[in-house]
């Protein structure tokens, strides 16, 4: 089954599995892609969170970040290290659910 492209703002679309990280910047969001590029869109992280909600591997770790759990390398007390060596904060309130989601997806924590 092919994963559909999700509209991210304007005429831009992206395949969810290609996004490593969503990073909020006021009313814009920077999407870090698996090919090393990034895309800046004039869409809030909250709107993108709703669009990507059907995909369980996309998880909001903090008010300013959403990550693709397929690219998580390690999880420490308050941050996640991604495979591109980027460290992302995890809020205290979202940490327990993150551990649960990673456990359901058979990740080693």
UniProtKB/TrEMBL annotation:
Q: Which PANTHER family match?
A: STAGE 0 SPORULATION PROTEIN A HOMOLOG, TRANSCRIPTIONAL REGULATOR-RELATED
Q: Which InterPro entries match?
A: LytR-like (IPR046947), LytTR_DNA-bd_dom (IPR007492)
Gene3D superfamilies in the record:
LytTr DNA-binding domain
Record protein name field: LytTR family transcriptional regulator
Q: Where is the HTH LytTR-type domain?
A: 9-104
Show the SMART domains listed in the entry: LytTR
One GO MF term: phosphorelay response regulator activity
Natural source organism: Lacihabitans soyangensis
């Amino acid at each position: 089954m092919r994963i559909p492209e999700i509209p991210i703002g304007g005429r831009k679309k992206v395949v969810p599995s290609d996004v490593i990280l969503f990073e909020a910047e006021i009313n814009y969001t920077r999407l870090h892609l698996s090919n090393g590029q990034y895309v800046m869109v004039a869409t809030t992280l909250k709107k993108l969170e709703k669009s990507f909600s059907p995909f369980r591997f996309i998880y909001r770790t903090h008010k300013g970040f959403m990550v693709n759990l397929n690219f998580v390398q390690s999880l420490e007390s308050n941050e996640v290290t991604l495979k591109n060596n980027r460290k992302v904060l995890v809020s205290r309130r979202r940490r327990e659910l993150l551990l649960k989601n990673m456990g359901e997806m058979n990740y080693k924590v």
